[in-house]
Design a protein that fits this description.
homodimer, alpha/beta, 5,6-Dimethylbenzimidazole Phosphoribosyltransferase, Chain: A, domain 1, Rossmann fold, 9% strand
Chain lengths: 350, 350
């Protein structure tokens, strides 16, 4: 609990003076003011995060965390739990979508097992298992409060050891059943009804979808999680990988490192971090607008505007990888473009 | 005229069989079907363009064409015409936004003068000047029909000489006053009213904006361009760089090379190409949704869905450069991801 408390305490507000200077510099670059839209805003936000009017990105890391979910035994997922383990092996072999996109944007992928239901033998895998999958939360709490804290702290430790000075990190997830946990967490924290925050995950039919909504409603009625207490919510309906990603988010913010949230699950991890310390939102870039409808609701709750909208619903950190490249583009604009005076370009006729 | 006619004639429909095979392959990759949304669609479209179920992108070129506009003397722009020349020099010195973003996505930039009003001394600049700026089209036609054809053919020639086997090319523009020409062209071809297709360009105030709309309406009433005759429209209210970009689009399609249109002006160039041969749309990726409102109308007309939405309104090919990287990501997904059988991942529980 000490590590979590210390990490939360170390998070400072972003540097508004650096942001002001970055904005001035943007306005002096050889282009009409504001004509690079979100690229300009991104660079200014990053200036605030890094506390530097001319921010820099040299290294990028994607944290893809895996965990299983006891709720899967209710038949609310299109894939069996074994797929979590199979996909972790796929990540380690470099054949998954996240590997392809991480290579494309030149980011390193850190894969960690926070609670996969089986054991995975692989030297490159970081194992910080808090349990062999969560409990079926429509019957009993997903985990204990102690486990929730342990999983968040595992995320903090993995970040601290693995970020190695990277200036931009991303959140990624793998866990069959984790959209069900995310919808339950989202409903508990934002107060929105289960049917408003529940989507079709990896692609379930109408019947399984209705069951999924019913189960989430039942679980929330059974456990009555307190939305302002993120540990309570996590312990009752959470997932180990989601808790771990909350830890990564807090650790990154406490180190003034920018975080790119991916889709619904990883943004739920960011939401847990935000509930523990609202200042973290200023350190987060929302990569994209997922097809999962709860995602939009979390983004609104955290006042984040997504960078991309590509109809993605895969997770793993895939959308975040693509957004990392856009964020880097924004930073390069600020760092590398000529100024009006430097390039001998007339500023305006008006 | 022969070069233009031949180029148009050489454009073939895209390969639907290659697209079908690409779709099958996407469905066998280790991810839920369709979960990579637009990335999947992009790869399938490119398969059709290249006539190859597993398309490839090794080289990328951005064609940034410059030209001046006589209409600027009416006071409808925030910048004076000299800025066109100054910005061309900025492109050649590597200090403009397009240079930064092209470096970021590893694309080559080809800068050409299709009709800048002054002479530019620079060995790296491709000079295919059709005139020293167009005429003020609220008083007389912007150019002759012969000049319109000459400018399109200049674009074809530049493409043919400079694409050097690249599989993906982008359109970029520079020309003070060119949103006014683009709005007039858009109105003439799509039949939409001037006020529906006219925006604030580089950032003009309310008075200049009203003047801009009035001038476009006057010019269209004076010249009565025939919307189905692209050469007629170009000659009456066009621009040399816009015509050149239409030529690049036609030449790329005739070589089965994918084209990324950028914002309002370059997409107007693509619209001219589309009016000359509607098949070209299948070769075009719309990079982004520009702030300029006529852009959306052209995209609808050509049935194109933009990849990005970043509130850009700069031109130069900046949005197209960023979209090139997303298109490349889609292609890499198709080429590099593991299949279910190859990776030992269970396909589905249902």
């Amino acid at each position: 609990m000490e590590l979590l408390k210390d990490t939360i305490k170390r998070i400072e507000p972003v540097d508004s003076e650096a942001m002001e200077k970055a904005r001035e510099r943007q306005d002096d670059l050889t282009k009409p003011r504001g004509s690079l839209g979100k690229l300009e805003e991104i660079s200014i936000k990053l200036a605030g995060i890094q506390g530097n009017a001319i921010p820099e990105i040299k290294n990028k890391v994607i944290f893809t965390f895996a965990g299983d979910h006891g709720i899967v035994e209710e038949g609310i997922s299109a894939y069996p739990s074994e797929v979590t383990k199979q996909m972790v092996l796929n990540f380690l072999n470099g054949g998954a979508a996240i590997n392809v996109l991480a290579r494309h944007v030149n980011a390193r992928v850190v894969v960690a097992d926070l609670g996969v239901s089986g054991d995975i033998e692989a030297p490159e895998l970081i194992v910080k298992k808090v349990g062999y999958g969560t409990k079926n939360f429509v019957r009993e709490p997903a985990m204990t409060r102690a486990q929730a804290v342990e999983a968040i702290e595992a995320g903090i430790e993995i970040f601290n050891k693995q970020f190695r000075g990277a200036e931009l990190i991303a959140l990624g997830d793998m866990g069959i059943g984790n959209t069900t946990s995310s919808s339950a967490i989202c409903s508990a924290i934002t107060g929105r009804a289960p049917e408003e925050v529940t989507g079709r995950g990896t692609g379930i039919g109408e019947e399984a979808y209705r069951k999924k909504v019913t189960i989430i409603r039942k679980a929330l009625e059974l456990h009555k999680p307190e939305g302002r207490d993120a540990i309570d919510v996590l312990s009752k309906v959470g997932g180990f990988e989601i808790a771990g990603l909350a830890g990564v988010t807090l650790a990154a913010a406490s180190n003034r490192v920018a975080v790119v949230s991916d889709g619904f699950i990883s943004t739920t991890g960011a939401l847990i971090a935000h509930t523990l310390n609202p200042d973290v939102s200023d350190y987060i870039f929302a990569a994209h607008r997922s097809v999962e409808k709860g995602h939009e609701i979390i983004l609104e709750h955290m006042k984040l505007e997504p960078i991309l909208d590509l109809n993605l619903r895969l997770g793993e950190g895939t959308g975040a990888a693509l957004a990392m490249s856009i964020i880097e583009a924004g930073v390069k604009i600020l760092r590398e473009m000529a100024t009006f005076s430097g390039a001998g370009v007339s500023k305006t006729v008006e």
